[in-house]
Design brief:
Elongation Factor Tu (Ef-tu), domain 3; 31% strand; Rossmann fold; 5-stranded parallel sheet; 6 helices; alpha/beta; 11 strands
Length: 281
């Protein structure tokens, strides 16, 4: 039996679309940019949607607000990327979205680096948070820079008496963040200064973990190669139930988002077939 009582689940939030305006933008850490967005529609978002994904639609360089509004309504579809809502404040009709800063290497990062108060962006979402059931005895979190928002939101939603471990792989010491995690969740902050070079440190720490008793739930996201290794370790070697393992690849070294999604789906199917054989069908 699980050690901690469940919190009520939030369910699927009501999805909205909006033309959102930048309230402020700036460096949260050395390699992370936080953009605060506002829209009248955000009054309908619950604060508990933090950790849910959303789609952001980017205006073209120099495009007027009226032209972008027309494009959102009539097409063609703007450049669109998937991000995480880090915080939602319905009382002020605001949300925060955190972007990894890597210059012009990606349209969303380039937009965030230049974002100023008054700029606009399209918004659609949110999806449900990734961790909505809090009935485990131990929680395992792992993230690289791209997934800090979803993991941080999950940590802050935990019951205060929860226990577990969180692993963060960041680009520099200046990227460490203060996260309001329960005191029983230990945090490991690892420095990996070249995100485009494969890392095995997260896997190494999980392999060395003295496996806890009871039910374990996970929230793991980041570079697909690392996430895939962790998923196979947890589902195969550790025997965790599929329903208790959230492990999602957000990006892959050397691939753009659209290319990555195609490869990710194929690998997921292959992994499920492999795990079905390992676990006896």
């Amino acid at each position: 039996m699980a050690k901690f009582p469940s919190k009520p689940t939030t369910g699927q939030p009501r999805r909205i679309t909006a033309l959102a305006q930048v309230v402020q933008a700036g460096r949260l850490t050395q390699n992370m940019i936080r953009v605060t967005l506002s829209a009248p529609e955000f009054a309908g978002l619950p604060a508990t949607c933090a950790g849910g994904h959303c789609k952001i639609m980017l205006p073209a360089a120099g495009q007027s607000i009226d032209a972008f509004r027309t494009q959102l309504a009539d097409g063609p579809k703007p450049v669109t990327r998937t991000y995480t809502i880090r915080n939602a404040r319905p009382e002020t009709r605001e949300i925060d979205i955190d972007f990894v800063a890597h210059g012009d290497d990606g349209p969303a990062s380039a937009w965030a680096a230049r974002a100023r108060a008054g700029d606009v962006i399209g918004f659609a979402g949110p999806g449900a948070p990734k961790l909505t059931e809090f009935d485990a005895d131990f929680y395992l979190f792992a993230a690289d820079m791209s997934a800090i928002p979803v993991v941080a939101a999950g940590l802050e939603a935990l019951p205060r008496d929860a226990t577990g471990m969180a692993i963060f792989e960041i680009t520099s010491a200046g990227d460490r963040q203060q996260i309001d995690a329960p005191p029983g969740v230990t945090q490991h902050w690892l420095i990996h200064d070249d995100p485009h070079r494969a890392s095995c440190e997260q896997v190494r720490i999980v392999e060395a973990l003295r496996w806890p008793e009871g039910r374990v739930r996970t929230l793991i996201a980041g570079e697909t190669g690392v996430v895939r290794s962790l998923r196979l370790l947890l589902r195969g070697d550790r025997g965790l139930d599929r329903r208790d393992v959230y492990a999602s690849g957000y990006w892959r070294i050397g691939l753009a988002e659209d290319e990555h999604q195609k490869v990710k789906r194929a690998e997921a199917e292959a992994d499920e077939a492999r795990l079905s054989q390992v676990n006896g069908g």
